[in-house]
Amino acid sequence: DYRGTIQSALLGTELALKSGLAALGVSNEELSNRKAIGHNLQAATNRLAGLCDQFDGDRVMRVVSTFPDFVKSRYTAPSPSRVETGEILMGAQYVASEVTRQFSDRDSRRDNPEHGERTYPD
């Protein structure tokens, strides 16, 4: 049963996005308001993308759109497979790193001219 891992990944994703928003001055009221952001990862992604020019909002949106609903995932059976759980966990790690990149002076892809532009399958 991998639901604990999934809950941790989803919560970590939400906290990463909300931390980035809070660092940019978004109020706690907006962050916690269910109609504004609440637990909605897509809403948090859109808001952060609107505030950070270098934030890869399209890719983050593709990642978080594949995640199960935070609340419903506590009670669903059967739990996702080991591979599906790994994909959710790696997606959460990507989102956290993409948010962190907005506040760091380090970006190995941007700073290394040998790396080409990012391309991803549809």
Q: Please, what is the average pLDDT?
A: 88
Question: What is the CA–CA distance across the termini?
Answer: 30 Å
Order of helices and strands: HHHHHH
Give the strand tally.
0
Structural class: mainly alpha
Strand content: under 5%
Low-confidence stretches: none
Number of helices: 6
Main beta-sheet strand count, sense and barrel state: none
What does this structure look like?
This protein is mainly alpha-helical and 122 residues long. It has six helices and no strands. It has helices spanning 3-23, 28-32, 41-51, 57-64, 82-101, 108-111. Helix 1 (3-23) packs parallel to helix 3, helix 1 packs parallel to helix 5 (82-101) and helix 3 (41-51) packs antiparallel against helix 4. The radius of gyration is 15 Å and the shape is globular. The model has no long low-confidence stretch (mean pLDDT 88).
